[in-house]
Amino acid sequence: MTEIEKTLENKSVRPTAMRILIYKYMAEKDIAVALTDIENAFAKADRTTLYRTLKTFEEKGIVHQIDDGTGISKYALCEPGCNCELDQDLHLHFHCGNCDETVCLTEHKIPHINLPEGYIAEDANLVIKGICEKCSGQ
Amino acid sequence: MTEIEKTLENKSVRPTAMRILIYKYMAEKDIAVALTDIENAFAKADRTTLYRTLKTFEEKGIVHQIDDGTGISKYALCEPGCNCELDQDLHLHFHCGNCDETVCLTEHKIPHINLPEGYIAEDANLVIKGICEKCSGQ
DNA sequence: ACAATAAATGCACTTCCGTTGCACTAAGAA
DNA sequence: TTCTTAGTGCAACGGAAGTGCATTTATTGT
């Protein structure tokens, strides 16, 4: 039994062939992936399957969904200590306007914001847009 | 000539009847509005016209577009000193999960974030999700 | 091993929002 | 008035998310 299979089982997700492949695909990339990306990578599989796999992964805390402002939902694997389902790991995301890639900056947490009277914060999303490391180095 | 007409002309937007109505509608609301909201408010007008009006307003710095994470673009009038087109007025937005309304918190600016080496920030978007003033008071 | 049951996958279709092309109309300039 | 430009309306497209249902694959109990 591989590491990936163990990881999936730990999160009570049955490690089917498709799921292992998708997990592997995401693990190899260091950037957030969209459903379309996975679709292109696995042309043989049906979009619904990939869609529902991501949803399952999300529910079980294997990946977290990222809204980077492009209008396209992206997903990234949760880090070992990622508590995104508890809204306790509010790391920020960086979207590069050049290569259109989105990365998690897991080391950078969203600073605490003082809200006006009456407002109750439950979640936060911070996306920085600009030029990423790879593109600025060109 | 009304205040609104003056405002529009100052931003070099011809104050047509439709545009004045839309501006008035947005001014009366203290929350960000979606195209659909305007559509419902002006059932007689065509969606394209409303859409293009918002786009014109946005280009000319009359409104700014807001991505509140719902997947639906919203728009709010720019405040007198709002320099959103210059990315110098990075105020944050609050989205209420109860009433689904989004407000600009113009007094609250996005704090400066130190990015890793190589990353160049050009813009930022911070959305706090939770319960708004109106809904928490219930 | 077998049937019974549940989960996963694939196909077709729908909905929603944003967007564009083109024709028509109204408004400002010569 | 005529010319020109800007604004409006109609129709249609396209991408992405999401749903219902049939089929296949895997797991459980006997």
Give the neighbour order of strands across the main sheet of chain A: 1-3-2
Number of strands of chain A: 6
How do the SSEs of chain A run, as a string of H and E? HHEHHEEEEEH
Q: What do we call the CATH topology of chain A?
A: Arc Repressor Mutant, subunit A
Label the overall shape of chain A.
globular
Strand content of chain A: 25-35%
Helical proportion of chain A?
25-40%
Largest interface: A-B, 35 and 35 residues
Given this structure, which CATH class of chain A is correct? Answer: Mainly Alpha
Please compute the radius of gyration of chain A using only Cα atoms: 16 Å
Structure report:
- The structure is a homodimer of 138-residue chains.
- By secondary structure, the first copy, chain A, is α+β, with helices and mostly antiparallel strands.
- Chain A has one domain (3-136): Arc Repressor Mutant, subunit A (Orthogonal Bundle), CATH 1.10.10.10.
- In chain A, 32% of the residues lie in helices and 28% in strands.
- The first copy, chain A, has five helices and six strands.
- Chain A has helices spanning 3-10, 17-28, 35-41, 47-59, 133-136, and strands spanning 33-34, 63-67, 73-77, 91-96, 102-109, 120-131.
- In chain A, the strands form two sheets. A three-stranded antiparallel sheet of chain A has the order 1-3-2.
- In chain A, helix 3 packs across helix 4.
- The N and C termini of chain A lie far apart (42 Å).
- The model of chain A has no long low-confidence stretch (mean pLDDT 92).
- Chains A and B meet through strand 5, strand 6 and helix 5 of A and strand 5, strand 6 and helix 5 of B.
- Strand 6 of chain A pairs antiparallel with strand 6 (120-131) of chain B.
- Chain A binds a DNA duplex (30 and 30 nucleotides) through residues 14, 16, 18-19, 34-36, 45-49, 51-53, 56, 71-73.
